[in-house]
Design goal:
The protein starts with 5 loop residues before the first helix and ends with a strand. About 45% of the residues lie in helices and about 25% in strands. Strand 2 and strand 3 form a beta hairpin. It is built from four helices and five strands, in the order H-H-E-H-H-E-E-E-E. The longest helix is centred in the middle third of the chain and has 13 residues.
Length: about 100
C-alpha cells in the first residue's frame, strides 16, 4: 500500500544506518572531502563510497569535484533554517539538541 508517507519511510531507512547518520551530522557543521570523511569514520573507501552514493541518490547530499578530490555538502534544502540544528526532509524535520 502506497501512502503519502512512503517517501518518508524511504528517507528514514536511508538515514537509519549509523555511518550515514554520522556523515549527516558531520556535514551539518561543514563540507568535507571524501578522504577527510574516511579518516573521521574509519571505514573502508568502498563502504564510504556506497554510503555517499545512497545519500546522494536520495537527494540528501550534493558533491562537487575539485580536481582529483570530491567535496560533499548537505543539499541546500536539507539543513534546518534559523537557529535550530537539524535536518529538513520533504516529509519531516529532525531537530537536534
Amino acid at each position: 500500500m502506497k501512502s503519502k508517507y512512503s517517501g518518508c519511510s524511504k528517507i528514514l531507512k536511508t538515514i537509519s544506518d549509523p555511518s550515514r547518520f554520522i556523515i549527516l551530522l558531520l556535514l551539518l557543521e561543514k563540507a568535507y572531502y571524501v578522504m577527510d570523511l574516511k579518516k573521521k569514520l574509519k571505514i573502508e573507501a568502498t563502504l564510504l563510497s556506497h554510503h555517499l552514493m545512497v545519500l546522494r541518490k536520495e537527494g540528501i547530499l550534493i558533491s562537487k569535484r575539485e580536481g582529483k578530490h570530491v567535496l560533499y555538502t548537505l543539499a541546500p534544502d536539507v539543513k534546518l533554517k534559523g537557529a535550530k540544528k537539524g535536518f529538513c526532509f520533504k516529509c519531516m524535520n529532525i531537530s537536534l539538541k
